[in-house]
């Protein structure tokens, strides 16, 4: 798991700080000790005021003491600088992993909740009756993003379905309602889904087999988030993972992590979503790399699948098409900003 290499690095740096501090303390003691030795040899006890020219022994002792002071200060400054650098490295490593709390704490589940309001829609979309139907199979490809930019949610659904399907929300039909149960919360939804005004097709997230579990989960998340227009503005995959699973959710800052930390998380069984950076005008190298590996030119979230035999990162595009080519670890660390992930089990 990604946290273990980070914690190991923190322990190693902490030990190094202690060892370097001890070494520099020994150097300082040697400098001061040498000065005191010179003073004793000159038969002068301690550090005396400036001696007259007629007192060569005292002058020699004073010179030794005066020399020791700046040397000791140099050692002290060096020790402080080393500690500052190591402390900054430790703080940076600890900052790589951030617990991502939800925007709202889930309350206790209600056995008979009131019906949730229909979340607001984007333009050109209306609600139409659609019964709940379950997918024939569940995996990383069972959810596809629709006409809004909620890749943070759909990629989270894809990675949970692929890596920890037992954590997916329970969705059931109950009379004139569809119940979506996530940890600590139940949504009682009308049996309607957003459809396109023009052709009547499902407007937002969907499944390739036409089942409706995915759009009902998205509808519940829209209730939670304040409507589909809010989802369309994007969001944090860590929050979506937490909402879906109730499991502790985190983010890893990719550019500051190093290949091995990234590889450890990618190879783990934890549901994970990788977020690419946008490739702005003038970023010719980034745009060329995005084209080479079939990445979206805008910031986008992808479900993490794992590493191949050549230690390249395998990603799933929640669009359901234009999946990225395998991305070498060093390239991945340049093109992606973060990985959001959640614990799949109590062992982490």
From TrEMBL:
<feature type="active site">
    <location>
        <position position="317"/>
    </location>
</feature>
<keyword id="KW-0788">Thiol protease</keyword>
<dbReference type="GO" id="GO:0004198">
    <property type="term" value="F:calcium-dependent cysteine-type endopeptidase activity"/>
</dbReference>
<feature type="region of interest" description="Disordered">
    <location>
        <begin position="102"/>
        <end position="125"/>
    </location>
</feature>
<protein>
    <recommendedName>
        <fullName>Calpain catalytic domain-containing protein</fullName>
    </recommendedName>
</protein>
<dbReference type="InterPro" id="IPR038765">
    <property type="entry name" value="Papain-like_cys_pep_sf"/>
</dbReference>
<feature type="compositionally biased region" description="Pro residues">
    <location>
        <begin position="108"/>
        <end position="120"/>
    </location>
</feature>
<feature type="active site">
    <location>
        <position position="151"/>
    </location>
</feature>
<dbReference type="InterPro" id="IPR001300">
    <property type="entry name" value="Peptidase_C2_calpain_cat"/>
</dbReference>
<dbReference type="GO" id="GO:0006508">
    <property type="term" value="P:proteolysis"/>
</dbReference>
<keyword id="KW-0645">Protease</keyword>
<keyword id="KW-0378">Hydrolase</keyword>
<feature type="domain" description="Calpain catalytic">
    <location>
        <begin position="145"/>
        <end position="348"/>
    </location>
</feature>
<feature type="active site">
    <location>
        <position position="300"/>
    </location>
</feature>
């Amino acid at each position: 798991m990604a946290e273990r290499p980070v914690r190991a690095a923190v322990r190693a740096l902490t030990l190094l700080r202690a060892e370097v501090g001890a070494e520099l303390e020994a150097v300082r003691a040697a400098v001061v000790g040498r000065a005191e030795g010179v003073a004793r040899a000159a038969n002068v006890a301690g550090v005396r005021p400036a001696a007259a020219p007629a007192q060569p022994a005292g002058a020699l002792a004073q010179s030794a003491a005066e020399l020791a002071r700046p040397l000791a200060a140099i050692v002290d400054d060096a020790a402080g600088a080393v500690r500052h650098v190591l402390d900054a490295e430790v703080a940076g490593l600890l900052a790589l992993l951030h617990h991502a709390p939800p925007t709202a704490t889930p309350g206790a589940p209600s056995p008979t909740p009131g019906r949730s309001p229909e979340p607001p829609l984007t333009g050109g979309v209306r609600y139409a009756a659609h019964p709940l139907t379950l997918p024939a199979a569940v995996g990383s490809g069972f959810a596809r993003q629709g006409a809004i930019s909620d890749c943070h949610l759909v990629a989270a659904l894809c990675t949970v379905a692929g890596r920890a399907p037992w954590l997916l929300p329970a969705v059931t039909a109950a009379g004139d309602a569809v119940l979506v149960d996530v940890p600590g919360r139940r949504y009682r939804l009308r049996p309607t889904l957003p459809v396109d005004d023009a052709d009547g097709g499902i407007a937002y997230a969907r499944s390739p087999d036409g089942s409706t579990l995915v759009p009902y989960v998205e509808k519940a998340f829209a209730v939670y988030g304040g409507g589909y227009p809010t989802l369309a503005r994007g969001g944090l995959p860590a929050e979506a993972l937490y909402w879906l699973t109730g499991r502790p959710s985190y983010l890893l800052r990719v550019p500051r992590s190093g290949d091995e930390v990234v590889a450890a998380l990618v190879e783990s069984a934890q549901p994970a979503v990788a977020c690419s950076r946008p490739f702005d005008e003038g970023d010719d190298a980034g745009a060329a790399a995005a084209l080479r590996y079939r990445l979206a030119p805008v910031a986008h979230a992808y479900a993490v699948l794992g590493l191949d035999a050549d230690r390249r990162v395998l990603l799933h595009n929640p669009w359901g098409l234009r999946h990225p080519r395998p991305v070498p670890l060093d390239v991945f660390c340049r093109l992606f900003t973060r990985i959001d992930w959640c614990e799949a089990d109590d062992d982490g």
